[in-house]
Each structure stands twice: as C-alpha cells, then as structure tokens.
Design goal:
Length: about 950
C-alpha cells in the first residue's frame, strides 16, 4: 500500500503514468460482506477483488440511480462519467457498468499482485505462487471477450493503459498489463566479488549521476563486503593502484610528522575512503564509503548520522544536497534488527536525512541459508513496507532495467524526500568466500549457475544482435580495460599512501596518538558564566510552565546569582551553554533526554496551557542558530540511535555529540556499536570521534536491570597496559591520546562540566564513557560552587595551571603532603564516596582517607602515586558497590599494584577489596537485601580491623 499513500500526496508527480509494477503491497483480503456505500472508489479497489463483487456493484448502481447522494462522491463521479462517455463512444454501447468495474478490478489486481508473475529470478529457480486474481475468467471474462472493445478513458486508475486511446480491446489491455507488471522489473508500494550481480555497478553509477543532476553534492555510502572493491574502484573511483597496493603488501605506515602510525589495521573489505568524482553531466560529487566491521548492517545508522551531520554543516535545510546510500544483502536486510531500527528513524524530526536509498544485492541465499529458512515473508525487503517506502524489484541480468530503477530511485528520493528500496534479484556465482563450496548446500542452484551466462555476456549478445556494436568494438573495450588494470598494477608497487583521509578540512590540525597535544584549561571567565547562567534560567514572560518546573528554574537562577549549590543539571547546562557561545555545535540524544529520565534536566519545557515548547539553551545569544543546540528524545532504540550519533560525531570535531541511555543497563542493546566501532574504530580505521556516552549507573536498590551500566565491560575493552607506567609528565604526556577511549565516574557537577568541555578543548578526539549518576542528581552534598567552573589561571591562591578536569579528587580533609597518622586509604569511584564520607563523619574516623578516582581509564598513575606517598603507613582498600567480578576492581587492581611496586609498596595481597561478592546478576532485586549489603560494604571499608577476604 506504500505507493497508494505516497502518490496520493503528490498526484502531479513525474511518476504519474509510471507503471505501478514498481510497487507492491500485501495481497488484499477478499470481502464477503456487502460494500458500504460510503467507501470511496479508490479504497474499494484496493481490496475488492472477489469475482462475486458484481452483485454488490449492481446494488451500488441501483442506489446511485435512485439517489446519487447516497453513495460516496467518487462513485457518483464514476457513474456520471461512465454513462456520459459511454453514450458518446461508438462500439461500446453493450458494455455495462458491471463489466467496466470488473475490468477495473482486473487492472488493479495486476497493480497489486502482478509482481508475483514478474521474471525476477535470472536463474528461474524460484517457484513463484500463482494467483487466480490475475485470471480474466475470475472476473467473468471469456475467450469471446478478448477482442471486444472496452472504454478506459474515465479510469484515473488505468493511467498509462489509456495512452490517449480511451477505447481498447481486452486483449491489448492484457498484453499491456503483462508487459508492465510481469516483466524483468517487478515492484512493490558473499566470495566478495560481484559475479552474478555485475549490473550493480552501472546501476549505482547512473544513480549517482542522476542524483547529481538533481542537486546532490555529497553521497555517504555504507555497504557489506560483497562488491566493495568493485564499488571502490568503479563507482567511488578509488585509485586502482592503491587497491592493488593494499592487497599485495598491506597498508603502509602513514607519516604523521612525529613517527609512523597505522593502528592495528583491518581486513581490506572493511576499509572506507572518500573521493571527489566527476559525473557524466559535468558536475562533481563527493563520495565517501564508511568503514565498517563484519557485523552486517551495523553501519546503517552510522551512515544516516554522518549524512545528517553533513546536512547540518552545509546548511542543507531541504536535505537535497547530501544523500545516504546503503547496500544490503538479502539475508541481512530481512534478518538484522538494526535495519528496521534505522528505517524507523527516517522520518523523525531530528534524525531524518530526507530519505535513504537502499540497494539490496539479493543473492537468493545468505551464506548457506535458503530464503525459506531466512525469512517469513515473500520478499526480503518486506520490512521496508512499514515505512510506505516504494520497493523496486529488478532482474539482475537485465542491465538496462537495473539502470532504470536506480535512476528512478534517485528521482523518487529527491522529489519525495523519503526512503526507497531497489532489490536487485541476482545470484552469487562463486561461494561465500575462498574456501566455500556452494554445491555442498545449494546443488540445484549451482548446477544452473555453472551454465548460466554472465550479465556482461547477456548484454554483449543483446548489443551485437541489435547491430549497435560490433565484435571488434567489444574486443577493443576489453583490451583497453585490461591495459588500464595492468598499468595500475605496475604502479601499485611504488604507491605511497597519502595522509589518512579523515583529516578533511574540518579535521585539519588534529593530532594522531603519536603527536603530543598540549593540555588546555577548561575553566570559563566568570562574566561569561554569569551571562549564560542568567540566559539559561530565564523563561519568557508569558510562558506558563508546570509549577514544579517553575520552582526548579527559580532555584537554578538563585544558584547562578549566589554562585553556590550548583547541582548536576546546572553544571551540565553550563558546559553546553559555554560551548555554544564559543561557536560549537552541541547535540544531545536519547530516549528521555529532554526532560531527563530522572526529571532533572528540563532542557525543553512545556507551557501548561498551550503545550508550546521552550528550550532555554536556544536563546543564549542574539539570533542564535536554532540548531546550534539540538536536544531530542529519540525512538526506543539503542543500537540505531547510538550508531546514528556516532556517525554524526565523526563528521566534524567541533561538536559535542552525546548519547544518553535511559538507564546504563540498557546500553547493552547497542553492544555492537561499542565493540566494533567506538572502542576500536581509530585503531582499525584511523577514525577519531569525540562522542560522549552517558550511562546512568549506581546501586540504589532498583534491581538487576536498573543498577549497573556494566562498567567492567568498558574497562575490559580499554587498551592501556596494566603493567607499564607511561610517561606522566604533563609536557610529554600522551597517555589519553594513546588510549582507545576514556572512562570516567564523576562525582561533582564541576568535574562533569570540565570533562565535557575537555572533549572540545584539545586537538584530538577520543570517545568518552561517563558513568553518570542517578541519586547524585539531587544529593545534598553533590554540589559545586561557581568558582570551581571559573578559569582563574595565575590568580593568587589558585593553581597556576588553571581550572581543569580532576582525574582524581584527593581527600577533602585537606591533608598535608605527608600524613603518617592515616592508617587506611580507601580508593573508590562514583557515588559510593558520599556514603563512605557520611559513615566516616558518623563514626568520627580521622585516621581514614578517602580518595575518588574520577578517571578510571586511562589510569591516573601520577595522582595515585601522589596519594600513596601522602599516606605511607595506610592500608590500601579498593571499595566498590558492584560485585567483585564486575565494576572496576579487576581493572584497577593490576594498575594499582604497578603504581605501588614502582614505589616499593607491597604486593597484590596488600590491596584489600571491599564490595559485593561475585555474582551472576548485577544486583539483588530485594530492597531490604540491598540496604543490608550497602550498609555492610560501607562499614567494612572503614572498620579498624584488617580486611582478610573480600566481602
């Protein structure tokens, strides 16, 4: 039904008159009940395909004859036009309205179900189901009716059938229907080479040329392994010598000015690239292929996010200059859930890209799985029907048909700004990879394939038979291509790679992990803080917020005015606001980020009478770009939305892009993005990103699905060496640059402010994982003073370094540099600190020091050693809320031991663990048990007797 709804919105489109064979919908149900007289003609013909319908048509006609207003207006128009036209058209005086309607229903049946007879499979292996609704006899027509003339002129639905000939024979109508709907194009509203799907290349080239003609300037491409090199070499125009070089000797190191850097690299079928290429129409178009892992379809949302970012930075407000194109396999398109998650973003206001073009290279087998075992629907593309997206099915052996639908897909996207799908039904001539023998599992298919000519051979034969080209011309072309390939292969032996291509204009000057980047201050001048603080706490005069929200904003205004009691939400807002007034783009996305899952953020507030929305951070400066700050409640998706934000963050480094999980526990729904992109993308593909991921974490007795963001997983994926202390001198330190990402568990609003600003105020980018709090959002002691946000570098009484993020917060009792009287040093991270500090005050323990490790990864060896020196006689305790096999313990202990050994300070037995016992579940589901466990953890961490075994 996709076509019907889309075309009804744009009846004057260039697609009027295009055969509806290009579209499909679910086969209609057959009605057995009388036709409601109020049902419009168009609605009725969508589903009224039962041959017994003439009874109801007669009833409808009689009702109209008695009272034209008793039927829907569309029926009234139909009957009036038919009666008037039939009386003036010779040769059809015997045609009844019932016959006309039966013929109309037959036409509609071809439009709806004709694809079932289309010649889509080049191997002719598929046993396609027949359908009696395509049989003229089903509608009461016989052999004797074939040469009768029928009037078509009044049928808007007939469209192309009338062809300015309002009277046609039934035979000619049926021939036209068969040609239109049952040819090599059918429609509905891995070796890694392309053998068997060669027509993809000319199809894509024509698609891109047509898109360029229609205004597209940049295309972001995501695709799996199959055909990747063909696309790189022939469509993107990556130099063939570079491709040959990568396969013959591997990627050579890239000179970064201060040493060579290649990362770990990746298999060649995963690598991305970008090039500018000319089009046949004389324009230039920028093509970028996004690097991706073997996890099929995982790149889909990344492409969408990168495309959206390109549209923002190029002021492409109508979304016609930047286009996303995704290539899929048939098995993965129907089988991978992220496909639907990505499709689901297509029309959402802050995620739409104006339509993505999807190309399915339909092998008719997924590795060794037959379609009947790989999906439950007729077509692999049926998931796209949820969007009303037009779906083009085309025989991959018919080159001109493939080119035609690819051009049509580009036209559709540019005109209607919505997704469109091209399903190229082809085959895989060889196995999935070099060691695969496909005849093991598909003997019948590969018996046919061995004797089946290639698409090139088929098209060559067609051209020769047409007389448009000679055998000599073909030989000349083949010789020219082989000469080019041989020359490029020879040149590949001396090929030297250029600087990595992520350093586009936006990324110029950013450092690699081998280049030293100086540490910068992140504090802000007090007058700027006051100014943006006032703006972000001021509401329009006539705006009527909820009473509780009004109270919150009044309290925030007081915080700014007094400079005291700054809470978490205000600290975050100050970070956003100061970055925005500095000209940086800030984008925050997630399922409940506008209000905040815990009703703490209120970045968008609602008028309680009109429903009007107001975002204070959109009004920090005069004439502020309305998209400079973007905050959006996302769809209920982790995988696709996180992937989208990752792609968005990769386009331009001068943006703070954040994704916040509803609860940190739920982030495991996006584990592929963490594992394959975020934690390893720079190492594999030399791509940096400064994406921030906020994961609410903390044990509050809410059960095993609302406590833990799985801190241990992020630390386990960190690549810093636990047994080597890196260079820690501030002027020489490259620790963070050489680590794959940062993991923090921050405990003050000011430190959160600085860690966010740090993401922008340095000349490299690293992902930041924040174990964001829950109960600290309103904790009475989790407050900061405005002076902690201010840059007071050089002022008397302040650190000459200025104000920066604190990787470790020392004990708040202001101990001297040497405190021999302290007999226990408790190291912790996160909100458990406040419980420990409260217990220490309650028990008046003056011999215990508590230090907060705010940055877990990379490990702050220098600051840890500073504290170890400060307390030379202290027993060392690591305290955490999480079970022993979770949390930070297994990451902290070897690194803490390395720091201790460097000071001659004991063995692993000297590190005492306090926390929950090992567990399969992250937390108990019984609140009373939680309280008991939490109490015992805090007491044990501070007790005077030695700790012998972890709690």
């Amino acid at each position: 039904m996709a076509l019907r709804r889309n075309l009804s919105r744009a009846p004057a489109s260039p697609f009027v008159g295009v055969p509806a064979r290009y579209f499909h919908s679910t086969r209609p149900k057959r009605f057995a009940a009388p036709v409601p007289r109020a049902v419009p003609l168009s609605r009725l013909t969508d589903s009224f395909l039962d041959g017994t319908s003439s009874v109801y048509l007669e009833e409808l006609q009689r009702a109209w004859e008695a009272d034209p207003t008793s039927v829907d207006e569309s029926w009234d128009n139909f009957f009036r036009n038919f009666v008037g036209q039939a009386s003036t058209s010779p040769g059809i005086s015997g045609q009844t309205i019932q016959e006309s309607m039966r013929l109309l229903l037959l036409v509609r049946a071809y439009q709806v179900s004709g694809h079932l007879k289309a010649k889509l499979d080049p191997l002719w292996l598929e046993e396609r189901p027949g359908d009696d609704v395509l049989d003229p006899a089903f509608y009461g027509f016989s052999e004797a009716d074939l040469d009768r003339e029928f009037f078509l002129g009044v049928w808007r639905m007939a469209g192309f059938l009338s062809e300015n000939r309002p009277v046609q024979t039934l035979r000619s109508v049926l021939e036209r229907l068969e040609q239109a709907y049952c040819g090599t194009i059918g429609g509905r509203p891995r070796r890694f080479g392309l053998e068997g799907a060669e027509t993809l290349i000319p199809g894509m080239k024509e698609m891109f040329d047509r898109a360029a003609d229609l205004g597209v300037e940049s295309i972001v491409i995501g695709m799996p392994h199959r055909g990747r090199l063909n696309v790189l070499g022939n469509v993107v125009r990556k130099p063939l010598r570079q491709i040959f070089s990568e396969f013959s000797g591997g990627t050579k190191p890239v000179d970064e000015g201060e040493g060579l850097y290649t990362g770990t690299g990746d298999v060649k079928y995963h690598l991305g690239t970008s090039y500018d290429r000319p089009t046949r129409g004389g324009k230039h178009i920028h093509l970028s292929l996004v690097a991706n892992p073997s996890h099929l379809e995982a790149v889909d949302p990344v492409v969408a996010g990168k495309t959206r970012a390109k549209q923002y930075y190029s002021n492409d407000q109508d979304r016609t200059k930047n286009l996303g194109v995704l290539l899929h396999g048939d098995g993965s398109f129907s089988g991978q859930g992220v496909v639907y998650e990505t499709l689901h973003l297509s029309a959402l206001p802050n995620y739409t890209t104006g339509g993505t073009i999807h190309i399915v290279v339909n092998n008719q087998v997924a590795f060794t799985t037959d379609p009947r075992a790989g999906r439950s629907s007729q077509y692999c593309t049926d998931v796209a029907k949820a969007l009303d997206a037009p779906i083009f099915h085309v025989n991959g052996d018919d080159l001109e048909a493939v080119v035609h639908v690819c051009e049509l897909a580009a036209e559709w996207r540019q005109m209607f700004h919505s997704d469109v799908v091209v399903d190229i039904v082809c085959y895989r001539r060889f196995g999935h990879n070099e060691i695969d023998e496909p005849s093991f599992t598909q003997p019948k298919m590969y018996k046919v394939i061995r004797n089946h000519p290639s698409a090139l051979e088929i098209y060559q034969r067609k051209l020769l038979e047409s007389g448009k080209i000679s055998k000599e011309d073909i030989d000349k072309l083949n010789k020219k291509v082989n000469t080019i390939l041989n020359e490029e292969f020879q040149n590949s032996k001396d090929y030297v790679p250029n600087k990595r291509d992520w350093l586009s204009a936006y990324w110029t000057g950013f450092k690699s992990p081998e280049q030293i980047s100086r540490i910068r201050n992140t504090g802000v001048k007090p007058e700027i803080l006051k100014r943006v603080g006032e703006a972000m706490t001021t509401l329009p005069e006539n705006f009527k917020p909820h009473r509780a929200v009004k109270k919150i904003f009044d309290q925030r205004r007081q915080m700014i005015e007094t400079g005291e009691g700054i809470d978490w939400a205000v600290g975050e807002a100050l970070a956003f606001a100061t970055l925005i007034v500095e000209g940086n783009h800030v984008r925050l996305s997630g399922q409940d980020v506008e209000r905040g899952t815990f009703s703490h953020r209120h970045s968008v507030i609602h008028d309680q009478e009109t429903g009007e929305q107001y975002c204070p951070l959109d009004h920090l400066v005069m004439n502020q770009d309305e998209e400079l700050f973007t905050v959006s409640n996302s769809s209920l998706s982790e995988f696709a939305v996180l992937g989208f934000e990752l792609g968005y963050s990769m386009e331009n480094p001068n943006s703070l892009v954040l994704w916040e999980a509803q609860f940190g526990d739920f982030s495991n729904g996006a584990q592929v993005i963490f594992d394959q992109f975020l934690s390893s993308g720079e190492s594999k593909w030399l791509r940096q990103t400064g994406l921030v991921v906020c994961l609410p974490h903390g044990y509050d007795g809410q059960g095993p699905e609302h406590s833990s963001a799985r801190l241990e997983r992020f630390l386990q994926m960190s690549d810093d060496n636990p047994y080597v202390i890196p260079e820690m001198d501030p002027t020489m330190r490259k620790q963070i640059q050489q680590c794959n990402w940062q993991v923090v568990n921050v405990t003050t609003p000011a430190n959160y402010f600085h860690v966010l600003r740090r993401q922008i105020h340095r000349d490299f980018r690293k992902p930041l994982i924040v174990m964001s709090p829950k109960n600290l959002l309103r904790h009475k002691d989790c407050k900061s003073n405005l002076s902690e946000f201010v840059d007071l570098a050089g002022h008397p009484g302040f650190d000459k370094q200025g104000t920066r993020f604190k990787r470790l917060i020392k004990d708040q009792n202001n101990h001297k540099d040497l405190e021999e009287g302290i007999n226990r040093l408790v190291l912790c991270s996160g909100k458990v600190y406040y419980e420990l500090d409260e217990q220490r005050k309650k028990t008046e323990r003056t011999d215990v020091a508590i230090c907060r490790v705010e940055q877990l990864c990379p490990f702050p060896y220098d600051l840890i050693q500073r504290e170890l020196k400060r307390y030379p006689n202290a027993e060392i305790v690591w305290c955490q809320e999480e079970p022993m096999n979770m949390g930070a313990y297994n990451y902290i202990s070897p690194r803490l031991l390395t720091a201790m050994k460097a000071l001659g300070r004991g063995t692993i037995e000297d590190i005492k663990y306090v926390g929950r016992a090992p567990s399969a579940a992250t937390a108990t589901g019984f609140y009373s048990v939680h309280v008991k466990e939490q109490t015992e953890i805090v007491q044990m961490a501070l007790q005077q007797k030695p700790i012998n075994y972890p709690f």
